[in-house]
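Quick start: what a row looks like.
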Amino acid sequence: MAITQAMILAAGKGTRMQPLTLRTPKPLVPVAGKPLIVWHIERLAQAGIRHITLNAGYLADVLIAGLADLNIEEKLNISLHISVEKGEPLETAGGIKYALHQGLLNHAPFILVNGDVWTEYDFTSLCHHKLGDYLAHLLLVDNPDHNLAGDFVLHEGKVLTKAANGSSLTFAGISVLSDKLLDEVAVGQIAPLAPYLSTAMAQSKVTGEKMHNKWVDVGTLERLASLEQYLDGNQ
């Protein structure tokens, strides 16, 4: 069965992109005239994803209103669900668990995308990825200048922590996850995803592949400007 659901992480404050993000949530920051999150939504829809969930926290009302104005659901023939996190941000794993609890994600494998990255990657292959007994499948990229130490090691198709031997790569913020990865996360718990991935890696339950498509972590104004320059030269 092909994967038909995805979640985009969109609740962050984007403090490193101020003043742009003082009144505009980072997912709505324009990249070459199109909100950053719309690039993801369009590529996911093109790959066959029909149900997309976003988590929202910082400036959630602005994000919801902005997406409604874009009329994305009708234009792309998708269902867009927003999980609003009130109070303290739930972090990555906590946010996913909350979306699952609300029924905004089915208890089946889903594609997870960090809302603050940009890529030309075609999600079609991920839609057909079969996790089997594994808990996660991660996309990795060559280490960018701002993360030269890397995050994980890719060895014979398995993803390992950097304690293992081998050259490290950077997690692209794109993955296929099993909801079972979050079995130990309580609803409402503030929990990052990394510790649960590390535990699964220690159990040889995480696979991965290296991605060669253009990829940018749009975390600063400088990287945003560089991406816009790249797009201006390729349109």
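That is the whole record. The chain has one domain: 5-233. Residues 5-233 form a domain with the Spore Coat Polysaccharide Biosynthesis Protein SpsA; Chain A fold (CATH 3.90.550.10).
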